[in-house]
Amino acid sequence: MLHVEPKARKSAFDRDAEARLAEAVGLTAAIGLRVVASHIAPLARPVPATLIGSGKVEEIAAEARGLEPTVVVVNAQLSPIQQRNLEKAWNTKVLDRTALILEIFGERARTREGRLQVELAHLTYQRSRLVRSWTHLERQRGGFGFLGGPGETQIETDRRLIGERIVKIKSELEGVKRTRGLQRRARKRLPVPVIALVGYTNAGKSTLFNRLTESEVLAKDLLFATLDPTMRGLKLPGGAKAVLSDTVGFIADLPIELVAAFRATLEEVLEADIIAHVRDASHDETEAQKADVLKVLADLGVETDGERPFIEILNKIDLLDGDIRAGLQARNVARPDAPVAVSAISGEGIPALLARFEKALTAENLELHLTLGHANGEGLAWVYRHAQVRERHDTDKGVELLLTANPQDAERLASRFGQKVSVR
Q1: What is the reported pTM?
Q2: Picking from 4-13, 90-99, 207-216, which range would have the lowest pLDDT averaged per residue?
Q3: N or C: which end of the chain has fewer CB within 10 A?
């Protein structure tokens, strides 16, 4: 494992070299690779032929001759020429950061949509480097060919075939996009608001998703444990309903090929009524991770300081010191807009989070008064489906209801029941 560290610091949110190296080691562990040696290579100026200097190239070559590694991972973006020159110098396969992340995504994608998205990203990446390892998806293992498989013969794949496959995948993903669009429009007709969980990979989004929805989505202490998006119903304390969406985790220097390929999936974030940013409060690099997530959201065109509610969730507080945890929870009470401190494992802070969701979703709700006849059971059932019933009184005049509803449902109520509805 080789981490290349530019000497120039770009901002206060940049991670230190050791933290970035540790993250890269975590990425390799995500696909079952065992790191036998690691190095940090300070980089004053990129070398066009090999990225790093000749001295460092030779140092690693000498070590590789003794260790005989299966692959050398360079935690940086390599050009096709740089990759080929390093493979020749080290006499082994070389993966850059993009290839490594693509390999992880290739193993983790489970749905047809996920596989298509990762394949598109893989082919787009490989098309620019003479495409040596595409094997027409005939491998017996997961992933996308960087680490080997039955077709691993270093053959050059015809660019025309890859171009045709890319066109076909894009066409199929357009179908996925249309289907998602129909599903979103159907939800808006109900309407059921959507809350999208976003965050750095391994921030605990899936564990929190499971806690909130009582689901069993895969949740492991691994980078990119969850890849395919999942949506489940969520019932809030006051009776309001929502749909919770668990999305793929972000990461620093997320390959542009993946951002483009997963745009159809990430449109759920673009359309969400609330964006909930889940952070690992126990991580030393939590502020830098926050900056990375906000950057990816900005690249997707998601505004985090606009009219749409944006809620920050500080997860994994069970791993924090007691005084720090108490301070975070006190801030929840003192500042209504403060990040919500929770533990998806223990359940601590979950009631406060649900209350925050409900408050954000009902901020524009109207209070209504409606009286229905005792025999109007159908109308009463309709009201319970489209509004929150706060009070109910059965009187001689009929069933008197105190309701809250969003402006759209309030308009529906007025249209259906006419003068029987009054706004308080």
Answers
A1: 0.76
A2: 4-13
A3: C
d(CA 322, CA 330): 12
Query: Is the same domain home to 343 and 406?
Result: no
Same domain, 132 and 28: no
Alpha helices in 280-400 (DSSP H): 286-299, 322-334, 350-361, 377-386
Q: CA–CA distance from 84 to each of 49, 100, 132, 339 (Å)?
A: 9, 16, 11, 47
Yes or no: say if 29 and 307 are a contact pair by the CB < 8 Å rule: no
Whether residues 9 and 107 fall in one domain: no
pLDDT category, 304, cuts 50, 70, 90?
Answer: confident
Residue 344 gets the label, from left (phi > 0), alpha (psi -120 to 50) or beta, of: alpha
Tell whether 182 is covered by a domain.
no
pLDDT, tens digit, 9 for 90 and up, residues 308-361: 899 999 999 999 988 888 888 777 666 778 899 999 999 999 999 999 999 898
CA distance 50 to 31: 26
For tokens 């390599």, the residue is 78
- Same domain, yes or no: 205 and 353: yes
Residue with token string 């909930």: 276
Structure tokens given for 187: 């939800």
Structure tokens at 122: 């893989």
Tell me what the mean pLDDT of segment 87-98 comes to.
93
* Number of domains present in the structure of the chain: 4
DSSP SS3 for 39: strand
What are the pLDDT digits (tens) for 381-406? 988 888 888 889 999 888 998 988 87
